[in-house]
TrEMBL record:
Gene for this chain: SEPT12
Region feature Disordered, mapped onto this chain: 1-24
Keywords assigned: GTP-binding, Nucleotide-binding
Name assigned to this protein: Septin-12 isoform X2
Low complexity bias (residue ranges): 6-17
Length: 311
């Protein structure tokens, strides 16, 4: 990986929280009305949210996205039987508007069909995964999951989770929520619990079944119904809470204020490698160290250890 094109660590450039002491007020001026203004604006304009799902074919990525939003967001296209194996990756994106209680969400889902399908390297963290995740975590927020968790016993699932966590630390892959973005004690407490459970062991299903007189999302097997929203069966509720109910705005803020700004600074500095002309940005050229470390950052050496993990 070219060090001059590597994105800086996202933890190095997020704006610090304001530390200015509060000013004593003599009376109310209506500041609390800003919340009502934000709510009215949100109800009018809605929100936008982008998700990219990555994994080998057949892991249930489409079903997982449909389960997240309880709608037919993504319809997978099955490969032709006996057809040639695709030799290149081509991103596929679909956009839908989902409305709940008057609030609209413009959702864009991007799939990466064929990623890693041609690599036969079972039961290990593949070099492709390592390189991909190292690049990706500096560009977007990464949330890893264990797919088809119902194929593992509880003991196997926990052991698998710990091995994946160890490999993420070994290869300096910083997944969301990043420790450096915990702004106060409440953030640290909440996010520490989330980090301890990542990668979430999930099961996807977009069909309802009748269980004890109630309809539940689940997957029917010859042993019974695997309930998607039952924490005794899988951790899908934790994934949904993280992506939608508790951290959606934080995911958007980090993407805009950190990842995009890092990308913008690099692109602006790269413009100095081009001849002067229309659109040339008058910035002081940055050294390779400035491009990779705009602030205090932990420098990691990428290593490749043999392991028994598979994402």
């Amino acid at each position: 990986m070219d060090p001059q094109r590597r994105s800086p660590s996202p933890c190095s450039s997020r704006p610090a929280s304001p530390r200015t002491p509060p000013c004593e007020m003599l009376g109310s001026v209506g500041i609390e009305a800003v919340l009502d203004q934000l709510k009215i604006k949100a109800m009018k304009t809605g929100f936008e949210f982008n998700i990219m799902v990555v994994g080998q074919s057949g892991l249930g990525k489409s079903t997982m996205v449909n389960t997240l939003f309880k709608s037919k967001v993504w319809k997978p296209t099955p490969p032709a039987l006996g057809g040639p194996v695709p030799q290149t990756l081509q991103l596929h994106s679909v956009t839908h508007v989902i409305e709940e209680k008057g609030l609209k969400l413009k959702l864009t889902v991007t799939d990466t069909p064929g990623f890693g399908d041609q690599i036969n390297n079972d039961k290990c963290l593949r070099p492709l995964d390592i390189e991909f995740l190292q690049r990706l975590c500096r560009t977007v927020n990464v949330v890893p999951v264990i797919a088809r968790a119902d194929s593992l016993t509880i003991e196997e699932r926990e052991a698998f989770r710990r091995r994946i966590q160890q490999n993420l630390r070994t290869h300096c892959i910083d997944v969301y929520p990043q420790k450096c973005f915990d702004e106060d004690i409440n953030d640290r407490i909440l996010n520490s619990k989330i980090r301890d459970r990542i990668p979430f062991a999930v099961v996807g299903a977009d069909r309802e079944h009748l269980v004890n007189g109630r309809c539940v999302l689940g997957r029917k097997t010859k042993w019974g119904i695997v309930e998607v929203e039952n924490m005794a069966h899988c951790e899908f509720p934790l994934l949904r809470d993280l992506l939608i109910r508790s951290h959606l705005q934080d995911l958007k803020d980090i993407t805009h204020n950190v990842h995009y700004e890092n990308y913008r600074v690099i692109r602006l500095n790269e413009s100095h490698l081009l001849p002067r002309g229309p659109g040339w940005v008058n910035l002081a050229p940055a050294s390779s160290r400035q491009l990779t470390s705009p602030g205090p950052v932990k420098v990691c050496e990428w290593t490749q250890d043999d392991s028994d993990d598979e994402f």
